[in-house]
Specification:
alpha/beta, Nucleotidyltransferase, domain 5, five-stranded mixed beta sheet, 4 helices, 5 strands
Amino acid sequence: MSSNKNKDTSKKNKKYHGISCSVAVVLIHASFNNTKVTVTDQHGSVLSWSSGGKVGFKGSKKSSPHVATIIVKDALMAAKDTFSIKTVSINVSGPGPGRESAMRTVGAMGLNVTMITDRTPIPQNGCRPPKRRRV
């Protein structure tokens, strides 16, 4: 008989089996079309993630504040169950409508928030204006 691996043991479970990561970083990317949440450890390894499409929403609903709360709950519950997270720091980027509600949901999940950082890119000089109109 050849030794086949079990289907239920995945690469993630082998890598983090028995490891508890009590401090995590929550990365929130809120654009005008979607909101994405990634939970990583302090070294940058992804513990869990979620987005509007993964949760099951389509179109313009993906960028709404209500969906942002569902996305954060989905990503943090998966990370809390597996890695027993207690403390988080939040990095927010993007001007989307879901950023405020996503940050509030992280605080409402019962986690200790140590730091909130805004990493939204700021344009230095902006786009070049159009040519002057000739009539």
